[in-house]
Write a structure and sequence with these properties.
Strand content: 15-25%
Shape: elongated
Helix content: 40-55%
Structural class: alpha+beta
Low-confidence stretches: 248-302
Oligomer: single chain
Strand order of the largest sheet: 1-2-3-4-7-6-5
Number of strands: 7
Length: 302
């Protein structure tokens, strides 16, 4: 049976989606399985979650839908079908969602139809633990920012190479056939200054809840997939290490019950190994700044 930890691991690689309930905007992610579901939702001020197994889903479905006699797995599949359009930003007029703040939590209400009968569901979310918030939000955001920073550095380097290539063409007599294609050499400092003064205020002015739109969802998924892959690798390595380490054999009663003391040569060797300097920490990855080699190509600008 898939436990809550496995459900959360499956939830990790699900991207955050922007959802709205009335005038309130949220970020949410959810994962459904035949054995239960887990929901994570945030208004960028607080983070709530609910993890429910099949038994809890069955009990709640009896309380909320007394006229429906459907197997628990059917309830879970129906809930998944109802939540999928919401997470994709698609409106379904046959389903309504509403949220209500409770004492220390958040309640999400769903109204729909199932087998021709009214279907009701309530997600009872409580505050998410710090580790869950860090795993699903903080750490991925930090890795995403590092990935985007490296991407900008690489694009800057490519722009400088292109400028060097274009200048080489001009020095060898090439000319543009269309003046509108002419560009100014890229200046990183000027670009950064303009970005901070013009683009950044617009980005920060975007309504809350739009933080994971379009391509950023793909980047989030890629980052969390790498984390999940590394986590499985560490777990697998730990299991192998535990298997290879057996119980320490007891000392034989015959002969020497204790190993002989180390000789002077052994102590000298151990001392020299202990004084070996530790390797220096990894340096920050920097892109090389090299001028592109001159290329002579005729007719590219003619």
């Amino acid at each position: 049976m898939e436990g809550s930890e496995e459900l959360e691991s499956s939830l990790l690689t699900k991207p955050w989606a922007s959802v709205c309930f009335g005038e309130s905007a949220f970020l949410a992610k959810v994962c459904f399985r035949d054995t239960g579901y887990i929901l994570l939702i945030s208004d960028l001020s607080s983070v709530w979650y609910e993890s429910a197994d099949a038994e809890a889903v069955g009990q709640r479905s009896k309380e909320l839908n007394k006229r429906l006699t459907v197997h628990v797995s059917s309830f879970l599949h129906h809930l998944c079908d109802l939540m999928s359009p919401l997470m994709a930003g698609q409106l379904d007029t046959t389903t309504s969602f509403s949220c209500h703040h409770t004492a220390g939590g958040l309640s999400l209400h769903v109204k729909s139809m199932l087998s021709g009968l009214p279907f009701y569901w309530k997600f009872h979310c409580c505050p998410a633990p710090v580790e869950m918030v860090s795993r699903h939000l903080v750490r991925p955001l930090i890795r995403m920012s590092l990935a985007l920073q490296y991407q900008v550095q690489k694009l800057t380097f490519l722009l400088l190479q292109k400028d060097a290539e274009i200048e080489d063409y001009r020095e060898n007599g090439a000319t543009l056939s269309r003046d509108r294609l002419q560009t100014e050499p890229f200046q990183e400092a000027v670009f950064q200054q303009n970005f901070m003064a013009e683009s950044l205020p617009q980005i920060c002015g975007v309504a809350e809840g739009q933080a994971f739109a379009s391509a950023l969802q793909q980047l989030y998924t890629a980052v969390t997939q790498q984390e999940a892959k590394q986590s499985r690798k560490r777990q697998h390595s730990g299991e192998e290490l535990q298997d290879t380490e057996g119980p320490t054999p007891a000392a034989e009663t015959t002969g020497h019950p204790h190993p002989p003391p180390p000789s002077q040569e052994d102590e000298t060797a151990s001392s020299s190994e202990g004084t070996t300097p530790a390797s220096s920490p990894a340096q920050k990855l920097r892109l090389p700044v090299a001028k592109a080699k001159p290329k002579k190509a005729k007719g590219l600008f003619s």
